[in-house]
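User: I'm preparing a small set of examples for a lab meeting where we compare how different chains pack in three dimensions. I only have the primary sequence for this one, and I'd like the structure in C-alpha cell form so I can line it up with the others. Please keep the answer compact; I'll paste it straight into my notes.
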Amino acid sequence: MRRVRLGLLLVAALSPAAWAGRLVVPHVPQSYVVRKGDTLWGIANHFFRDPWRWPGIWNRNIQIRNPDLIYPGDVIALRYAHGKPYLVDEGPVQAVGGRSGNTVVLKPAMGSHALVGAIPTLSPNVIGPFLQRPLALSRRAFGRLGYVAGAVHRHTFLGPVGRFYARDLGAHPAKIYEIYRRGPALRDQDGDFLAYETKYIGRAKLVRRGHLPELEVLSSIREVQAGDRLIPWQPQPPIPYYYPRAPKKQIHGAVVAATHDNLNLGTYAALAINVGKNAGIRRGYVLRIYSRPRRFYDPVAHETERGRRQPLGLLMIFRTFAHVSYGVIMQARREIHVGDTVATP
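Assistant: Understood. Below is the C-alpha cell output for the 345-residue chain.
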C-alpha cells in the first residue's frame, strides 16, 4: 500500500519561550534530511537537549491520520512560533545545489512512500531481541506452565534435534513451544519477591500427542534440561512505535537485574526495574537513572558524609509486567549498576 505524502506540521506544546534556548541544542543546523537507519529518537536528539519530550517535539496532528510516519528523504526543519521551538516534516525534497549558512538549499517535491519504509522510534537491532524475552512471571504463572519431563533417549541434556517428553501441555497442545528456564528471583530493595526472571533456552515442535507428549528441539542457545518450562510460541510482532514521554505522576524504583551477564550497563543495554503495571508504568515511559549516594570521608572535619545521588542517564520502558518492567538505556553518562535508582525526570 502506498500513499501520497504531503508535508505535515508537528506542532509543539513545549515550555514557555524562556525555555527555548535551553531545550534546543546550540548551533544545531536548522534542517535535517532523514536517512535510512535513522530513528525518531535520534532525530529528536539531533535538535533538542531532551529528546524524550515527545509530546512537544513530535506532537500528533489531528488532521492527519498517522503523522508519526517519517521516511528517508524527508526534510525535518526546526521552526519557532512565539519563542517555542517545533519541528516540521517538509516531506521529500530534492537538493538544487549549494548551501546557505547551516541549511541545505532544497526544492520541495511531492512523492509517495511505502508505509513499511517509515523509520522507527528505536533501531530494531536495539529493541527486537527483548520484545518477547526475558519474561518476568509470578510463582503461580510459572507453576502452571508445561515442562520438559525427560529425554526420550539416554541423554541428560538435549541439543538441536534431540527429543523429550513433556507434561502439563493441556488438552490442546500447541504445535510449537519456546523453552525457558527459571532464573533468579527478582526482589525489591527490601528483599520482597517480585517475579521469577526466565531465561530463553530454545524452541521445540510437537511430534507426538497423547498422555505423554513428545517434542523435538528445533533450535537452542543452551542445552535443554528436564524441568525447563514450555510456553506456546507466538509469531514475533512487528517492532512497535514507541512514543517516549515522562510519566504524569512521580515514579520511584530501582534497577533489580540486567538482561545479560555484564553488570556494568551502558547505552542500549536492557535492564529490569522493580515497578510495573501495578505502579502505573506504561510502555514508552522515560525515567531518569540515578546513582546511589556515595559515602566519603572528610579528612578535615573527620566525618563520614553521604553525598547526593547523581543522574546517570535515561531509561525508556518497552515491556511491562505486574511488578517488573524492562527498559532500554537511551543515554548513559557513566556505567549503570544493579541497585541504582530510577525516577520521573
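A couple of notes for your slides: The chain has five helices and 24 strands. Residues 40-47 form the longest helix (8 residues).

User: Perfect, thanks.
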